[in-house]
Amino acid sequence: xxxxxxxxxxxxxxxxxxxxxxxxxxxxxxxxxxxxxxxxxxxxxxxxxxxxxxxxxxxxxxxxxxxxxxxxxxxxxxxxxxxxxxxxxxxxxxxxxxxxxxxxxxxxxxxxxxxxxxxxxxxxxxxxxxxxxxxxxxxxxxxxxxxxxxxxxxxxxxxxxxxxxxxxxxxx
Length: 172
Description:
By secondary structure, the protein is α+β, with helices and mostly antiparallel strands. Helices cover 45% and strands 14% of the residues.
């Protein structure tokens, strides 16, 4: 699939087929996603790729019972390490750059997965403390997004988007 097609067809999917996704495919997606930009190339992130059904159930529970986290064969947890950004950029790195960097990683994962014919959803609604306990995160690491990856069991729905002229200002 071409990049532009992946961008055009990416949608938040909340129901997944039971079809498994090979670990090798997930590994390729994550390896490619590491090309995401980061301030000062600090790469203040960690990735937990969760295939274990029990852990996915716990993550679903920590996300208020969002069942599609159990349906998808993989859940990718993107972890932010603010102090790695702060080591170079101080408070701005700790409170902004690490957020921007992990957001870039999330969208890379989602678009690359789509390029492999897989579907995702950016999940941010979860109890961060519970997820940290489930993943046994060390102090100073925070889960900022969970991304289920699998094959859609529902049609992609186009949702209305704001027109470019509503949100863009061109300074020529």
